[in-house]
Design a protein that fits this description.
This protein is mainly alpha-helical. It is 65% helix and 0% strand. It folds into two domains: 537 residues, Cytochrome c oxidase-like, subunit I domain (Cytochrome C Oxidase, Chain A, Up-down Bundle); 38 residues. The radius of gyration is 25 Å and the shape is globular. The mean pLDDT is 92.
């Protein structure tokens, strides 16, 4: 009966893949490590794309009255730069570390739902590609990465640019939410024996907190995007303030009730990474482990109560302003606690200034400056004065670049040996750090001054009599230093991947479980699931490395086979979105495309549900 059912499921469809090698092995993989690497490579490619968009903007702003590009082109570039960096770079870069590391850190052989994990990745990739495809049809999104309605309804945005933006974000959002659910189940249910919640690495804790943030923060964004989609495609009036009397602040509330928890979705991975790196290179346990974990949870909780500090100048009323200003001040407390704990971890330690630690120190210092400029804007008069100036641009880049990017880069240098079995060059790594650190501050520190001098954000040109040109030229020079640092990183990655020194199992003499297995790990991670007896299972009380116990005789653990259904379902969902874009101009053609991809979606879901666990069980 089971064999007949398996044959029925695969009627007219290619056989289930068996090989994990080659390009097809990567396309059909359900291995969390490969999926993590796919996330990382994709995020890095989009990082380069977003960086090019930033450099083009900086060329335009480097001199007064520049004619390098027109206003429409500039609007498209800053819209896609912001959208790319938030949704296609920093979030999936964090997901790359979640995917590769979490099962290794908690002693699991994979995530709870391997195929759902692959499905999440393909939705992210296809959603990002759909949005960027708009460039080739002359409809590059140009309304700002925040998409404020009613400016984005059809009456004011006539092209399909907003449609590509809305549908691309919806597809990526589905994948992100599915990933959040997957990691909650994985961390709560698949930890190794003896690994209580308070014996998990801080990075695993931050992943759990972020996953809950994703689950609760993305629905408001999904609602906002769905309402806007209905306004644009089906002539509803959720955001029509003139014709239907809609609330002009509805979009802002829905977007920012997602948007501020999103800030912590972006920064908490870096906090977790740094919290695991500092003990390794100071040769002492993390100071105040429980406090750092609790502070992360408090940040996540308070993150849902500060969204309207983005709206102090919109007339929401004195009581609302006072409440959100107070919450904004309060959220700085657990953040400050983390910083003091990190400094206390370093204090009195045997410091080893390796590249991961250098980027961690860069993270702490730059994020602290970004946090201080953020707390400043909890003071309503200060925020009112600096709202929509370059001071705000400087602030969030100190948080998201100085914080997230520096922290993620520290993680790349730290876990690259585990991913590849090779070490990255320390000399080139230090060159990369100093170029990026100097370039970052040359770029974004003067923006504070430009903001105080009154330069608005989102302008594509300015006149010479405003005396902003010298500082803007300086800022643009710094942006190209950052670009040079990224070229150094790319060179280091290529050279180290090809000919880096073999890393061995635990090159940093670190304390967590992922360093107890070969580098790179076997596809099954742990031949025998370990038993954990402390927070630092590979250290003794003096922070000296202890060898993991010898394993008893064992066979190769059984792991799920590859699957093409995640790819098929994600492709079908994206195809339906593409059909909706066609429907807007060619009714019957759009309906045909949506029906065709809908059938593929149904076939893919059917195949997914009835797919055997392994290729052997399918009889192929």
């Amino acid at each position: 009966m089971a064999a007949n059912l398996a044959n029925l499921v695969n009627i007219g469809v290619i056989k289930r893949p068996v090989s994990t090698e080659g390009i097809w092995g990567w396309i059909t993989t359900v291995d969390h490590k490969k999926i993590g690497i796919l996330y990382g490579i994709s995020a890095f490619i989009f990082f380069i794309l977003g960086g090019i968009e930033a450099l083009l903007m900086r060329v335009q702003l480097s001199s007064a009255d520049s004619t390098f590009m027109d206003a429409g082109t500039y609007n498209s570039l800053f819209t896609m730069h912001g959208t790319t960096m938030v949704f296609m770079v920093v979030m999936p870069a964090g997901a790359a570390f979640f995917n590769f590391l979490i099962p290794l850190m908690i002693g699991a052989r994979d995530v709870a739902f391997p195929r759902l994990n692959a499905f999440s990745y393909w939705l992210y990739l296809f959603g990002a590609l759909l949005m960027n495809f708009s460039f080739f049809v002359g409809a590059f999104p140009d309304m700002g990465w925040f998409g404020y309605a009613p400016l984005t309804i059809s009456e004011y945005t006539l092209s399909a640019s907003t449609d590509y933006w809305v549908l691309g974000l919806q597809i990526m959002g589905i994948g992100t939410t599915a990933a959040g659910l997957n990691f909650v189940v994985t961390i709560l249910n698949l930890r190794a024996p003896g690994m209580t919640l308070m014996r998990m690495p801080v990075f695993a804790w931050m992943t759990l907190i972020i996953s809950f943030l994703v689950i609760f923060a993305f629905p408001p964004l999904t609602i906002a995007l769905t309402l806007l989609m209905f306004d644009r495609f089906f002539d509803t009036n959720f955001f029509d303030t003139v014709g239907a009397g809609a609330d002009p602040l509805l979009w802002q509330h829905l977007f920012w009730v997602f948007g501020h928890p999103e800030v912590y979705i972006l920064i908490l991975p870096a906090m977790g990474i740094v919290s695991d790196i500092l003990p390794t290179f100071s040769r002492k346990p993390l100071f105040g482990y429980a406090t750092i974990v609790f502070a992360g949870a408090v940040i996540a909780f308070l993150g849902f109560g500060v969204w309207a500090h983005h709206m102090f100048t919109t007339g929401i009323g004195a009581w609302a302003v006072a409440a959100f200003a107070s919450a904004t001040m309060a959220i700085g407390v657990p953040t400050g606690v983390k910083i003091f704990n990190w400094l206390a971890t370093l204090w009195g330690g045997t410091i080893q200034y390796r590249t991961p630690l250098m980027f961690s120190l860069g993270f702490i210092s730059m994020f602290m400056l970004g946090g201080l400029s953020g707390v400043m804007h909890a003071a309503v008069p200060v925020d009112t004065q600096q709202q929509d100036t370059y001071f705000i641009v400087a602030h969030f880049h100190y948080v998201l670049f100085g914080g997230s990017i520096f922290g993620l880069t520290a993680g790349l240098y730290y876990w690259f040996p585990k991913m590849t079995g090779r070490m990255m060059s320390e000399k080139i790594g230090h060159l990369h750090f100093w170029l990026m650190f100097i370039g970052f501050n040359v770029t974004f520190m003067p923006m504070h001054i430009l903001g105080v001098l009154g330069m608005p954000r989102r302008i594509y040109t300015y006149t010479a009599d405003q005396n902003w040109d010298d500082l803007n030229l300086f800022v643009s020079f710094g942006a190209f230093i950052i670009a040079l640092s990224i070229l150094v990183l790319i060179y280091n990655l290529i050279v180290s991947t090809r000919s880096g020194a073999p890393s061995g199992m635990n090159p940093w003499q670190a304390a967590t479980l992922e360093w107890s297995i070969p580098s790179p790990p076997h596809h099954y991670n742990f031949a025998v699931v370990p038993t954990v007896e402390s927070l630092y299972p590979l250290w003794d009380e003096e922070a000296n490395v202890v060898e993991p116990p010898e394993l008893p005789e064992h066979g190769e653990p059984h792991m799920p086979s590859p699957s093409y259904w995640p790819l098929v379902l994600a492709f079908a969902a994206t195809g339906i979105a593409a059909g909706l874009l066609i429907y807007d101009n060619y009714f019957w053609s759009g309906i045909t495309v949506m029906v065709g991809f809908g059938c593929l979606l149904f076939r893919g879901a059917y195949g997914w549900v009835f797919e055997p666990l392994t290729a052997e069980e399918s009889g192929h």
